[in-house]
Amino acid sequence: MKMRTETDSLGEIKVPAERLWGAQAQRSLENFAIGSEKMPREVIYALAFIKKAAALANCELGSLPEDKKTWIASACDRILDGSCDFEFPLSVWQTGSGTQTNMNVNEVISNLCCLEAKTTLGSKKPVHPNDDINMSQSSNDVFPAAMHIASYLLVKQKLLPALNFFLQELKQKATQFSDIIKVGRTHLMDAAPLTLGQEFSGYATQIEQALEAIEKELPSLAELPLGATAVGTGLNAHPQFGKKAVEQLAHFTNMPFELSQNHFAALAAHDALVSFSGALKRLACALMKIANDVRWMASGPRAGLAELFLPANEPGSSIMPGKVNPTQCEAMTMVAVQVLGNDAAVSFAGASGNFELNVFKPLIIFNILQSIHLLSDAMQSFCAKCLVGLKPNCKKINHDLTHSLMLATALNRAIGYDSASKIVKKAFEEDLSLKEAAVSLKILSSEQFDSLIDPSSMVKNIETS
Q1: Which residue is catalytic, options 83, 251, 317, 446?
Q2: Angle between the 139-154 and 241-253 helix axes, to the nearest 10 degrees?
Q3: How many CA atoms lie within 13 Å of 306's alpha carbon, on the beta-carbon side?
Q4: Where would I find the beta strands (DSSP E) of 324-460?
Q5: pLDDT tens digits, the chain, 465 residues: what are they?
Q6: Which member of 35, 163, 187, 394 has the greatest number of CB atoms within 10 A?
Q7: 414 shares its domain with 444
Q8: Of 104, 135, 166, which residue sits at a domain end?
Q9: CA-angle at 365, arms to 349 and 269, nearest 5°
């Protein structure tokens, strides 16, 4: 491999001749050969947005010449179109401030400008990675700003559409199943009846509330600490730089970004991301509940609950012919577990800031973005490959309902809890129907029983308004 020599504050280092990264990125590659997890592309693109906005802001404030602004903005656009993705090879497991990824982006922009200007790669001409591209910035304020931008954009572009798609299908199923009366279950045991539609309306409300919780966190994610520089005081930045740069970012992305309320908190802690991760955890818990319920209701087909028919997407077993497994449910629950683990990592990391800087930034954003991707993809997959094709097994549902001992609950107001309990006990012990037990005990006549037991009258919604 051909190499070129680059320099930084530590001296000379060899860099692959054709690569656009520079000395500091190369040192990171050599010093942090840890794991296979690379810095997410969403973070790289967020940094490119910031570098472009910074160049425009610095030029407007008279700190950066017009020609350098143009060079930098053009290079950032090349990064944002995805054509330079392979120039950002750094591990997530690097310095906790994200400094090396910030410099990776600065170096690539500088060398893109070298290519455009036909100067030597690594010459730092016509623009310097630190003096020009990083002007008015520090990794300590740029990287947390990129964390917020990356999270915000991914939520808007991917998570919210997936959530709304999932929610609408749950609501449709709640309507579609509204007349199907089934046995309810509490403590995993037979309970009073409800409709399958009511059951699915509960799932829909869980997702609706999870959606609201996520949307509630977005204003905090829209706050960016640009202009704070190293410790929050704005050292080496023009007083108006942060405001101007954030205005540019809002314009580029068409998102309501604004300056953070307190730069010191934004650098030293990541409470907004910790809270947002909690909202993702809430969604994961809801998805786990829904997926588990669906796979239990679909268990069988002859020795389980068998209330639902799953779409047959693929063979379920390598040894048992004709088996259909709840694979989408299993994938969803695995995603939920991963997101719960990610939230624990984000919580520990968020609690571990020291003085003026939290140095768990790469870990936090890696886990946040992974959770967003996993939840979005899992909901899309579950909805398209399971929920849409889910069908009720009305024959089995009706059989279980008519044989349910818990229909005796409706007798309480007419004959009292104790008498109803005697009927249930006799029916269970002697394998009788409730009606047969009631008549045998001479507690009710056949006609009286029929007038009291009507499952459709037991599933009316309580007024909530």
Answers
A1: 317
A2: 20
A3: 12
A4: 391-392
A5: 899 999 999 999 999 999 999 999 999 999 999 999 999 999 999 999 999 999 999 999 999 999 999 999 999 999 999 999 999 999 999 999 999 999 999 999 999 999 999 999 999 999 999 999 999 999 999 999 999 999 999 999 999 999 999 999 999 999 999 999 999 999 999 999 999 999 999 999 999 999 999 999 999 999 999 999 999 999 999 999 999 999 999 999 999 999 999 999 999 999 999 999 999 999 999 999 999 999 999 999 999 999 999 998 878 777 787 788 999 999 999 999 999 999 999 999 999 999 999 999 999 999 999 999 999 999 999 999 999 999 999 999 999 999 999 999 999 999 999 999 999 999 999 999 999 999 999 999 999 999 999 999 999 876 554
A6: 163
A7: yes
A8: 135
A9: 45
- From the number of C-beta atoms within 10 Å of its C-beta (0-12, 13-18, 19+), residue 15 rates as buried
> Quick count: other Cβ atoms within 10 Å of Cβ 323?
12
Domain, as residue range, for 430: 404-453
Reported pTM: 0.96
Would residue 381 show up in a list of annotated catalytic residues for this protein? no
C-alpha torsion angle, residues 377, 381, 383, 388 (rounded to 10): 160
**In whole angstroms, what is the distance from residue 416 CA to residue 158 CA?**
54
Q: Within this chain, do residues 182 and 69 fall inside the same structural domain, yes or no?
A: no
| Cα separation, 152 vs 221, whole angstroms | 6
Exposure of 22 in the CB half-sphere (CA atoms within 13 A) = 29
Could you give the CA distance from residue 222 to residue 207 in angstroms, rounded to a whole number? 23
- The burial class, CB within 10 Å (0-12 / 13-18 / 19+), for 449 is buried
The domain that holds 366 is classified in CATH as 1.20.200.10
Same-domain check for residues 16 and 128: yes
* Angle (nearest 5°) at CA 316 between 204 and 169: 15
Q: Can 373 be counted among the known catalytic residues?
A: no
For the chain, counts of helices (H) and of strands (E)? 17, 8
Residues 202 and 342 reside in one and the same domain: yes
Assign 233 to helix, strand or coil.
coil
Give the active site residue among 74, 136, 148, 187: 187
Altogether, the residues listed in the chain come to a count of 465
Instruction: Report the SS3 class of residue 7.
Output: strand
> In this structure, what DSSP letter does residue 16 have?
E
CB atoms inside a 10 Å sphere around CB 443: 19
268 contacts 355 by C-beta, under 8 angstroms: yes
Amino acid present at 189: M
